[in-house]
UniProtKB/TrEMBL annotation, chain B:
Origin superkingdom: Bacteria
Region described as Disordered: 67-107, 127-156
InterPro entries from the UniProt entry: START-like_dom_sf
Lineage: Bacteria, Bacillati, Actinomycetota, Actinomycetes, Kitasatosporales
Protein name, entry field: Uncharacterized protein
Species of origin: Streptomyces fimbriatus
Length: 391, 156
């Protein structure tokens, strides 16, 4: 079959790879209907995530049709249309049992690497390096889905493929940020990043009762989209002093909850950015935490900062002083998709949530490298490029 | 530029790999009076559900060559299963060389323990897709090797 492979830093190509086969009894094989580009892939393509091998198939946000089921699969049958959580959970370890699915103990096929990098292994995610599972990605004609009874969810009648696709990764990620940050009615919430993840975090905050939600980015189309489709206020960070603006919009208090949905390749105009970039290029720091710093600085005393953006290693100039002296709670997580996906599909079906506007482009698999180029450079208004291997 | 960058990426991988090895080497030495140290995992099952005589195959195959200890984990965290080789294991068995070549007996025991946990909790040991990649490069081979070695001695 054909698949999109990582061939080295900033090198992607569509190649012929062997079809996936059932390797465990709880696997299913899914024929891809649609997959999409995620900001996390950019970190991987840029070489900021270690433990990639050239030839690795990437992609983790997807939807498709079950074409084969392992002997122990109970909840799926051939022909089911399913959306699949990007993180794989076994469903029965302590973490899965406590709805912390991305921390699953049993789904990383290379345990030990995470141990060295982070002090413990994370769960496995599709197509995201040998440190984070060593599982093949979904930008292919077929993908093997382990522990499918737990990670694959039937899409309700009446919810179209494109809308359901994002429930695989970006929607539950955004929801988790607002939920685990403890957004409550009356809160003012600020969200850094107007990609799919940031937009979904903003939407979740609104649905969880936030009084005001303010989203921050610099890309005009994204700001406009966030205002129109999400119903969030926006700030262009290149046009104003974000900290001052947030302070004035919140009666001088600062946002109760700050959600960071930018990640390790954050952009900035400040001189510190050059410093961060140089250090990152030299691998003296692995990540550029611009938006995290700003979120911590802007957050009201006693507030919560939730980091949804992906970071791989160590950062510089982390404002620990603000954390302690303002009594902040700082949290982060990779997404616990299985915890939220059924609820999110219901909300989609009920019309409370809409996601189809995120799909700004649709391409066949052969054009996936070009689509990633466009997504990376945020060209042509690209927010998510949908890749349809079946054309 | 792209080439320079990929060199850095390789350096990052190497550094991470070195960290894997370094961390393993610093592991606490065995207590000579009591033999090799215990290797432990926590299993999300009640102590009554784990019977020493009925551990899953990767551990069962060790038979009398290992000691087994089972005790409740604190709070709701399940059950701690610990194993260690019976009798004295020479220090050289845990040398850096033995670890790099994958010959440290602790590595296999750790793997067996981890697999037993997966079998008890999830009913299977998740296998990676095969083949791991369609075309190998030296960097890729190194990542593969590190992955195989790291699996032998994590904390899980
Ligand atoms: N935690 C998880 O499970 C999870 C899941 C999916 C994605 N992510 C991460 O979330 C982040 C966002 O993902 P995405 O798919 O929306 O990516 P994206 O690239 O589409 O969006 C990122 C946005 O951040 C904006 N940005 C850059 N610098 C900024 C700054 N200093 N201040 C404010 N905005 C800034 C960019 O203009 C862009 O619009 C990435 O780091 C991704 O890896 C995490
Ligand atoms: Zn993602
Ligand atoms: Zn689990």
């Amino acid at each position: 079959m054909k698949a999109l492979c990582w061939e080295g830093v900033n090198k992607l190509s569509v190649e012929e790879v062997p079809d996936p086969v059932l390797r465990n009894d709880q696997d299913v094989i899914v024929r891809l209907v649609a997959g999409t580009t995620c900001g996390s892939d950019l970190h991987l393509i840029g070489g900021y995530i270690p433990f990639m091998r050239s030839g690795d198939v990437i992609g983790h946000e997807f939807l498709g049709e079950v074409v084969e089921t392992g002997a122990a699969v109970r909840r799926h049958k051939v022909g089911d249309r399913v959306v699949v959580s990007s993180f794989v959970g076994c469903g029965r370890c302590w973490y899965c049992a406590h709805d912390l699915w991305s921390l699953c103990d049993n789904t990383n096929t290379n345990p030990g690497i995470g141990q060295a990098l982070f002090g413990a292994d994370t769960g496995g995610i599709f197509g995201y390096s040998h440190a984070m599972g060593g599982l093949r990605g979904s930008h292919a004609e077929y993908v093997r889905v382990p522990f499918a009874d737990y990670g694959a969810f039937p899409v309700p009648e009446g919810v179209d493929d494109t809308s359901a696709l994002f429930v695989s990764d970006s929607v539950p990620t955004g929801w988790m940020g607002a939920d685990l940050a403890g957004v409550r009615p009356g809160d003012v919430v600020a969200v850094w990043g107007c990609g799919a993840v940031g937009q979904m975090a903003a939407r979740a905050a609104i649905l969880l009762g936030a009084e005001r939600v303010i989203s921050i980015d610099r890309i005009p189309e994204r700001l406009e989209m966030t205002e129109r489709h999400i119903g969030s206020e926006v700030i262009d960070y290149t046009a104003t002093d974000v900290g001052a603006e947030l302070r004035e919009r919140t009666g001088g208090r600062g946002p109760d909850v700050c959600i960071e949905a930018v990640g390790m390749e954050a952009h900035s105009d400040s001189p510190v950015h050059v410093y961060d970039q140089v250090k990152q290029q030299l691998r003296l720091q692995t990540d550029r935490p611009t938006a995290v710093r700003q979120a911590i600085h802007a957050c009201r005393k006693g507030g919560t900062v939730f980091v949804l953006g992906v970071f791989a290693g160590a950062v510089d100039k982390f404002p620990l002083g603000a954390v302690i002296n303002k009594g902040l709670t700082v949290k982060g997580a990779q997404q616990h998709g299985q915890r939220y996906i059924p609820m999110l599909l219901d909300r989609l079906a009920a019309g409370e949530l809409s996601t189809s506007h995120l799909a700004t482009h649709t391409v066949p698999l052969d054009e996936a490298p070009r689509a990633y180029g466009m997504f990376k450079d945020k060209k042509d208004g690209c927010v998510r490029a949908v890749i349809r291997p079946g054309g | 530029m792209a080439h320079g960058k990929s060199l850095w990426a390789t350096a990052a991988v190497l550094a991470a790999g070195a960290a894997v090895v370094a961390r393993r080497v610093k592991a606490r030495p065995a207590d000579p009076a009591t033999g090799d140290r215990w290797l432990t995992v926590t299993i999300n099952l009640g102590p009554e559900e784990i019977r020493p005589g009925e551990l899953p195959s990767p551990l069962r195959e060790y038979g009398d060559r290992i000691e087994t200890r089972i005790r409740p984990a604190p709070g709701d965290r399940g059950t701690e299963l610990a194993v260690r080789p019976r009798g004295a294991v020479p220090d050289s068995a845990h040398s850096v060389r033995a670890r790099l070549s994958g010959d440290d007996p602790r590595q296999d025991l750790r793997r067996a323990l981890r697999e037993a946990k997966a079998l008890l909790e999830a009913g299977e040991v998740l296998r990676p897709d095969a083949p791991p990649t369609t075309h190998d490069t030296p960097g890729g081979k190194l990542v593969g090797l590190l992955g195989r070695r790291a699996g032998g001695e994590g904390v899980l």
